Amino acid sequence: MSGLAAVLFDMDGTLVDTEVLWWQATEEVAARLGHRLTDTDAPEVVGRAVEDTAAHLVRATGASDPEGIATALTTAFQRRVDEGAPMRPGADRLLTELARAGLPFALVSASPRSVVDSVVGGALAHVPFAFTVSADDTARTKPHPDPYRTAARRLGVPAAACVAVEDSPDGAASADAAGCTVLVVPSMLPVPPGPDRIFADSLEDVSLDGLRRHVRDRAAARSGEPQEQG
Length: 230
Fold this sequence. Notes:
Blueprint: E1 6-9, H1 19-32, H2 50-61, H3 66-82, H4 91-101, E2 105-108, H5 113-120, E3 132-133, H6 146-155, E4 162-166, H7 169-178, E5 181-184, E6 197-199, H8 208-223
Keywords: Hydrolase
GO molecular function, one term: hydrolase activity
Protein name: Hydrolase
C-alpha cells in the first residue's frame, strides 16, 4: 500500500489549544512545590506525558512523591480543560474534509484517558474519530512508538500509509519511530526537521490532497522514483 490510508491526530496543541492549559497547570503545581517555571523547563513540560513532567518536578524541587505530583498535575489540567478548550485554526475544516472524503482518522494523545474523554466530549464532540488512544491505553506513551503503532494496527493499515499530525518534539519522535509520515504544525516548542517530517505553519495550510501527495512522495523517495511536482 503506497497511498494515504489514514490520518492520526495528536490532541493537545494540535487539534485543541490545550498546551497553554497544561503549562498553566504545571505552573500551579510547581509553585506549590516552591519552583517557578521558566522557559528552561519547557522541554520537560510541553508535549510530555504526565509522568515525565512529574519526574521533572521531582528533580527540580527535591520532592519525593512523583505519583502524588502526577495526580496533582492531572487534576489541575482537567479543571482547566473542563472550562473549555478551543480548537486550533484550521482543525475543524481539515477534520470535516477528511470525514466527507471517507478517510479514516483517529486521535492519538499522550494525555490521560480522563482528559481525552473530556476534550472529545466537549470541543471535539462533533468529530467522528474512528477511536481515541490515550496515555492509559499503551504500555509506553510518546515519545515511544507504541501509541501510533497501536492506532495503525487498530485501523488495519501499515503505519507507513498513515500521516501523523503533531506539534511537539516527543510526539514527532513517537510517530517517526512508528514509521508514519509526520506533519508537524509547531505550537509552543520548535520541532527539529527529519527525513520523514513535513512542516506547516498552521492546519489552515493543510489539505487532504496535500497529505496524499506527501505520502506518495515518501513512498517514491524510498523506491528511488521521481517525486511528484507541484
